[in-house]
Amino acid sequence: MRKSVLVSGSNGQLGRALQEASRFFPDLKIDFLDRNQLDLSQIGTKGKKIAWPKELLDTHYDYYIHAAAYTAVDQAEKDVKLCFQVNALAVKHLAEYLSTKNTKFIYISSDYVYHSLQNTPFTEKDLPQPKGVYARSKLAGEEAVKQTIADYLIFRTSWVYGEHGKNFVKTMDRLGKERDEINVVFDQIGSPTWVYDLAKMLLIIIDNGKAKETIGIFNYSNEGICSWYDFALSVMQFRGYSTKIFPVRTTAFPLPAPRPAFSVMDKSHFKETFGLDIPHWRESLHKCLNSLRD
Length: 294
Prior knowledge:
Layout: E1 3-7, H1 13-22, E2 28-32, H2 54-58, E3 63-66, H3 80-99, E4 104-110, H4 133-148, E5 152-157, E6 160-161, H5 168-178, E7 181-185, E8 189-190, E9 193-194, H6 195-207, E10 216-219, E11 226-227, H7 228-239, E12 244-248, H8 268-274, H9 281-293
């Protein structure tokens, strides 16, 4: 029998990547919900009865991938209520509902939940210390899942980019065509994640049965580490742009939300549990840029 999967956030980066990757998994029946079908800003708001989409009411799914999220990190400092509504409160109601249907809940979280002065790669056992509204909302979403549904997987990922939506790689690709020189911060260190690698990983572990037998929190990003400066430089080099990049400190770009200076994650637990290799970020960046060129 084909495993059935429901994905929210179909028009987001991860949702689009899951749609593209799904064609390589013929044994999975995958349905997608967009914001019009599942409006997280309205789920469980005071005084309103939850109007679940017919997909949730009429169909049983083996897995639910929560790919929808409020991701405007700086705007979240103003939209506190909305950010928590989307990233935590709606998640709690979804988890409660899906727990009655024996559906496995897969929640995508963020490296922002760590954010301490630690300068060695974070493991899942390290204490989260989220600083901004977005970061706190993602940890609250994690807690909502853990406390509400017994069968779950949480993946903390970082520096996500891809062919769709707004992201760092697409911005650098555009600036490489438009400008002779740009400034990019060098004092934030992490690991980029090509969203297609993340999407493919999720479908692989569902397809091979590993997701069914596993519960818990896992770090996932591409292998290797870099600064945003290194990342930008690689985009320019791969593209052959002559744009000059100047490394600057974070203080050169004062922004509302605090950024982790170091958010490299240790993925040993993931690799030992799921037995999958993870591509290096340079390899995946090259593939993404080739895809953008096409």
